């Protein structure tokens, strides 16, 4: 091969590589708006000022972004011009699989988030505002029409009223504000989020009555208000959320009667009303009409009464939390008969009496049964294999009249129970000497004759 040929070949490969590079660059989205790029730098600096973001990511932030910054193409319907804008911003280290930009203890909340990103669809903060207080900003009415997910998780220093963060979010699907310093009442504007599918406001400092009309939230699948200071009655309009899959109102101050309208939630598979102040109206019978339930938790409400016979259509239940409810009477054997998929059963700290149903011993998937601190009695009906399977999560202490068979007494899970006394052995003299024809022995015949003549004398 001549020198000229070699030169031509090298020139060909050089040109090809250059064309490929140019092509790849053209395929990459370009954040043409310099002001928007500068806003991303400023927001990154507000959550972690120790990192020089401009030096670390000097190129176009839509071509070579840090984790947590996502862009997308947009076409102007009039001019047909294609532009690229930031659509997702996620901050706070979650896992090795989603290494978003980590937040520093003195992170601040940049107001640019609600002014510079008109096309934002998702805003996510995880453990970013933990020490230095960051106040809920006033959101301009011009922002939020594109926002689909607003997520703040475990940001205790993010404080302010919930009314300040609801905005004009006509496209919002997920509102997740969990473990923050959000306070005040639920604003009526929540009822206007027509496209919302999840509202999670757990573990904040919210309070007051839930008076907002929830009937308009036709697409809602998750409603979680747990761990706040709400009080008063649960609004009956919750029963109109017919697509609801999860309802969690636990650890509040709700009172009165659990609304019968919840029976309309035919798609519900998770219900948690535990640790409220619901009145002495008994376990709701409407649970029997909710066949898709997987978990039901009512613990910590003094509902009183007996455990009703409602389990025939609830065979899909995996967990029942009925602790500390003032329940009386016996445990229905039908629970063990129908709830064949049960994994967890909590009936502790009630006033239940009678025997432990032997049907519980045939629950194939159960891994925890808590019957502590009741008035149960009699012999524990479980086999050695069953007690070995459940182990230390078989909790029975606090039932002084409950006893365990000698052969199980050495197991740690039932070791605190007393041993059952041995049954009385009949007098063998009365049962020996029975012939194959079934006649009584001579001793037995004598006693029967004596008893017969004694009665005849008394009656004569």
TrEMBL record:
**In which domain of life is the source organism classified?**
Eukaryota
The reply to whether Signal figures as a keyword in the UniProt entry is yes
| Membrane topology classification | Single-pass type I membrane protein
Keywords from the named record: Glycoprotein, Leucine-rich repeat, Membrane, Repeat, Signal, Transmembrane, Transmembrane helix
Q: Which Pfam families match?
A: LRR_1, LRR_8
Compartment(s) of residence: Membrane
Quick one: signal sequence residues? 1-18
Q: What is this protein called?
A: Piriformospora indica-insensitive protein 2
Species annotation: Gossypium laxum
């Amino acid at each position: 091969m001549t020198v000229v040929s070699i030169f031509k070949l090298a020139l060909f490969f050089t040109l090809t590589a250059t064309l490929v590079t140019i092509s790849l660059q053209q395929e990459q989205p370009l954040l043409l708006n310099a002001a928007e790029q500068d806003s991303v730098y400023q927001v990154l600096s507000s959550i972690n000022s120790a990192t020089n973001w401009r030096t670390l990511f000097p190129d176009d932030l839509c071509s070579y972004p840090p984790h947590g910054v996502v862009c997308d193409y947009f076409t102007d319907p009039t001019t047909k011009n294609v532009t690229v804008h930031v659509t997702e911003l996620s901050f706070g280290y979650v896992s090795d699989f989603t290494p978003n930009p980590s937040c520093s203890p003195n992170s601040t909340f940049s107001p640019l988030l609600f002014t510079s990103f008109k096309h934002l669809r998702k805003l996510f903060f995880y453990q970013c505002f933990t020490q230095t207080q960051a106040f809920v900003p006033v959101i301009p009415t011009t922002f939020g029409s594109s926002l689909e997910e607003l997520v703040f998780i475990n940001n205790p220093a993010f404080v302010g009223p919930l009314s300040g963060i609801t905005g004009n979010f006509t496209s919002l699907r997920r509102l997740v504000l969990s473990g923050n310093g959000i306070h005040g009442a639920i604003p009526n504007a929540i009822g206007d989020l027509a496209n919302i599918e999840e509202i999670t406001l757990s573990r904040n400092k919210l309070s007051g009555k839930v008076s907002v009309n929830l009937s308009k939230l036709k697409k809602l699948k998750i409603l979680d208000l747990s761990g706040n200071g709400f009080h008063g009655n649960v609004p009956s309009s919750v029963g109109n959320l017919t697509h609801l899959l999860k309802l969690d109102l636990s650890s509040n101050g709700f009172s009165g009667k659990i609304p019968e309208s919840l029976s309309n939630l035919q798609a519900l598979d998770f219900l948690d009303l535990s640790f409220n102040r619901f009145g002495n109206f008994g376990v709701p019978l409407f649970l029997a009409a909710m066949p898709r339930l997987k978990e039901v938790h009512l613990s910590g409400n003094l509902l009183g009464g007996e455990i009703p016979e409602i389990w025939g259509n609830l065979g899909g239940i995996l967990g029942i939390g009925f602790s500390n409810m003032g329940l009386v009477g016996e445990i229905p054997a039908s629970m063990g008969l129908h709830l064949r998929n049960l994994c967890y059963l909590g009936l502790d700290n009630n006033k239940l009496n009678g025997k432990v149903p032997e049907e519980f011993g045939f629950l194939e998937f159960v891994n925890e049964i808590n019957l502590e601190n009741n008035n149960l009695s009699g012999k524990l009906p479980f086999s050695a294999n069953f007690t070995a399977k459940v182990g230390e999560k078989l909790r029975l202490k606090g039932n002084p009249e409950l006893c365990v068979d000698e052969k199980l007494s050495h197991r740690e899970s039932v070791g605190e129970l007393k041993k059952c006394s041995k049954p009385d052995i009949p007098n063998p003299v009365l049962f020996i000497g029975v012939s194959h024809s079934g006649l009584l022995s001579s001793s037995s015949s004598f006693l029967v004759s004596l008893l017969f003549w004694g009665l005849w004398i008394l009656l004569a």
